[in-house]
């Protein structure tokens, strides 16, 4: 296996309490802390581990989004990725961009760069779609190993343990392949200061969807983005007896 | 205003008349899983004919017969082949595509489970359409509601696609009843669906006599506050008395207290039981995403500032190691 491609997305930081825009067109993103999608950090870590184990030679990180997406590419470079590709999409186009578009872009880059493995996070914590890896695999006609919690190179393929509803399952897939990383796959490393400095010298290539011949025409229309219904404030009860009485009263327990 | 309403209604009726939905059944070769009945419920909201596809390795007759009995199902297509071993997305995608080729459905949907989350996007990409994940409401045949940002915003979107590929959140759609349906069982299109891309090796499923998490009426969940896997026994004892399922926060899973399939939250399972008891769980955004639609939420936590108390109907500020055994003793 020579090359690994990692997809990374810039999202609002997981710890931020988001706010819906008053005009209901989306959520407020200006001036809000952003960082790399947590699942993508896991994907990057796995790619770097493959390189450390000499299973991979080169890691390329790709991010699709506005100019600030380069920040997450720099983070990936500081974690051990060799070079970055930034596919610039911004403004209205970016708001309407769907995982299908991203998958087409990733698939094209995977072919152009002759990679053997694509690793993505299992879902982005902003749109919560959980689609990109599967669709990239479909477009390339490669096998997909989704929700991976363990990846091993065995023979000329990969053995992957997947997190499924009832527990775990193990599959074998041929290479080239697409993997989506689940939480338990690894613990991402912190980028050290010297590595952050070194990352500044690593190259980031800039592309547009046009360069890759990918049509990004909108597939959806946003009707509205609203706040979820708020729950009525509850009450703090003094003791177990009161709690049990309340639960009996509401018919939850007998 | 009245005329506008009636015009909308006519358009709606016109557009629903020609809908036809393929529901992909989820089963384990022996039993149809409950989420399929929720998916049929969502299909009925779309309107039009409902066909259920049952794909499995062998002896799927019982599963197909059960699917045919679901209220609102017009037809069941059955495909049996060794190719579907392990229900790999690669093999089932080919089957769905040839079924779609023959019947030209307007909607392809399934309950949002690990199985369909793997499968549906692959199908959608092959059809060159943008799928919609975890739909919580069907407004019209092409307008859907889903949550984004861990359930902290509700997105209503209109899809421009000719074919809608949707996964639906089981807890948001009523399961159709079983017994009333009279669907005809037929063979799915024949074909070579074997894929050599992926090979299923094995499964290690957690065994439990307790109810399945996503369909349980009562769930007792533990977090970091439990301090060890052994202490989860406190929750199991109470769960057994109540006939409840046991869940966990990510912290409890990461710490190795319980298996990953018990995780409730944005990236684990989404549940909405009648009663959710959060024990030693602080209530991070990511956990709330998985349980805040529960009818009644109880929080037991010794930290009165824990965010979980902001969503709890009943809160008990107490040491769980005292409170939980006390509850168990009094039930």
What tags apply to this protein structure?
heterodimer; A: 254 residues; alpha/beta; Rossmann fold; 9-stranded mixed β-sheet; two-stranded antiparallel sheet; 7 helices; globular; B: 331 residues; 2 domains; 5-stranded parallel β-sheet; 9 helices; 15 strands; elongated
Provide a compact summary of the structure.
Chain A contains 7 helices and 13 strands. Chain A is of the alpha/beta class and 254 residues long.
Describe this structure in words.
Chain A is of the alpha/beta class and 254 residues long. Chain A has a single domain, classed as Rossmann fold (3-Layer(aba) Sandwich). Chain A is built from seven helices and 13 strands. Chain A has a nine-stranded mixed β-sheet, sandwiched between helices. A two-stranded antiparallel sheet of chain A has the order 2-3. In chain A, a hairpin with a 2-residue loop joins strand 8 (157-164) and strand 9. In chain A, helix 2 (69-79) crosses helix 6 and helix 4 packs across helix 5. The N and C termini of chain A lie far apart (61 Å). The relative contact order of chain A is 0.18. In chain B, helix 4 (89-103) packs across helix 5 (114-126) and helix 6 packs parallel to helix 9 (320-330). Chain B has two domains: 20-187, 3-Layer(aba) Sandwich (Rossmann fold), CATH 3.40.50; 218-330, 3-Layer(aba) Sandwich (Rossmann fold). Chain B has helices spanning 2-17, 35-46, 61-69, 89-103, 114-126, 232-242, 250-254, 285-288, 320-330, and strands at 20-24, 49-56, 75-80, 107-111, 132-140, 143-148, 153-159, 164-168, 184-187, 198-205, 218-222, 245-248, 275-279, 296-301, 314-317. Chain B is built from nine helices and 15 strands. Chain B is elongated. In chain B, 29% of the residues lie in helices and 26% in strands. Residues 10-14 of chain B have low confidence and may be disordered. The longest helix of chain B is centred in the N-terminal third of the chain and has 16 residues, at 2-17. Chain B has 331 residues and is of the alpha/beta class. Classes of the chains: A alpha/beta (254), B alpha/beta (331). Chains A and B meet through helix 4, helix 5, strand 7, strand 8 and strand 9 of A and helix 4, helix 5, strand 6, strand 7 and strand 10 of B. Chain B: Its main location: mitochondrion. Chain B: It is found in: Mitochondrion matrix. Chain B: FAD binds at residues 224, 249-250, 263-267, 280-287, 301. Chain B: This is Electron transfer flavoprotein subunit alpha. Chain B: Residues 21-204 form the Electron transfer flavoprotein alpha/beta-subunit N-terminal domain.
């Amino acid at each position: 296996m020579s090359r690994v491609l990692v997809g990374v997305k810039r999202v609002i930081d997981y710890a931020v309490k988001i706010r819906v825009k008053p005009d209901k067109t989306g959520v407020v993103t200006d001036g809000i802390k952003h960082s790399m999608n947590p699942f993508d950090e896991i994907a990057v870590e796995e790619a770097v581990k493959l390189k450390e184990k000499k299973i991979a030679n080169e890691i390329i990180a790709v991010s699709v989004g506005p100019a600030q997406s380069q920040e997450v590419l720099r983070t990936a470079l500081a974690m051990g990725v060799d070079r970055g590709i930034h596919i610039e999409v911004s403004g209205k186009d970016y708001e309407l961009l769907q995982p299908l578009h991203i998958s087409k872009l990733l698939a094209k880059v995977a072919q152009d760069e002759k990679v053997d493995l694509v690793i993505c996070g299992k879902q982005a914590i902003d749109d919560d779609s959980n689609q990109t890896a599967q669709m990239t695999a479909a477009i390339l006609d490669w096998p997909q190993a989704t929700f991976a919690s363990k990846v091993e190179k065995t023979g000329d393929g990969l053995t992957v343990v997947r997190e499924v509803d009832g527990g775990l399952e193990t599959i074998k897939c041929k290479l080239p392949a697409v993997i989506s990383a689940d939480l338990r796959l690894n613990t991402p490393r912190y980028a050290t200061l010297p590595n952050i400095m070194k990352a500044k010298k690593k190259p980031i290539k800039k592309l547009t969807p046009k360069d890759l011949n990918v049509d990004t025409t909108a597939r959806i229309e946003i009707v509205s983005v609203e706040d979820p219904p708020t729950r009525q404030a509850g009450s703090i009860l003094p003791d177990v007896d009161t709690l049990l009485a309340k639960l009996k009263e509401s018919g939850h327990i007998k | 205003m009245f005329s506008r309403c009636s015009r909308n209604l006519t358009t709606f009726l016109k557009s629903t008349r020609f809908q036809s939905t393929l529901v992909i059944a989820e089963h384990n070769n022996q039993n149809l899983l409950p989420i399929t009945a929720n998916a049929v419920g969502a299909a009925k909201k779309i309107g039009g004919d409902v066909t259920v596809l049952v794909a499995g390795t062998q002896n799927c007759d019982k599963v197909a017969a059960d699917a045919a009995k679901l209220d609102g199902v017009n037809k069941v297509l059955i495909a049996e082949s060794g190719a579907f071993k392990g229900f790999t997305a690669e093999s089932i995608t080919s089957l769905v595509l040839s079924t779609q080729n023959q019947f030209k459905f307007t909607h392809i949907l399934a309950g949002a489970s690990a199985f369909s989350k793997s499968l549906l996007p692959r199908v959608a990409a092959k059809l060159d359409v943008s799928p919609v994940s975890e739909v919580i409401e069907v407004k019209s045949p092409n307008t859907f509601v889903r949550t984004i940002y861990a359930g902290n915003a509700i997105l209503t979107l209109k899809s421009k696609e000719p074919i809608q590929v949707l996964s639906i959140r089981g807890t948001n759609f009523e399961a159709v009843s079983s017994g009333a349906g009279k669907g005809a069982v037929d063979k799915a299109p024949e074909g070579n669906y074997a894929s050599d891309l992926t090979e299923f090796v094995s499964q290690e499923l957690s065994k439990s006599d307790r109810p399945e998490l996503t369909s349980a009426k009562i769930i007792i969940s533990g977090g970091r506050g439990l301090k060890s896997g052994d202490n989860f026994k406190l929750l199991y004892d109470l769960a057994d008395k109540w006939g409840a399922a046991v869940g966990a926060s990510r912290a409890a899973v990461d710490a190795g207290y319980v298996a990953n399939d018990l995780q409730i939250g944005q990236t684990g399972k989404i549940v909405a039981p009648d009663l959710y008891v959060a024990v030693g769980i602080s209530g991070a955004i990511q956990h709330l995403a998985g349980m805040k639609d529960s009818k009644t939420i109880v929080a037991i936590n010794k930290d009165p500032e824990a965010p979980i108390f902001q969503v709890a109907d009943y809160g008990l500020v107490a040491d769980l190691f005292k409170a939980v055994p006390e509850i168990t003793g009094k039930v």
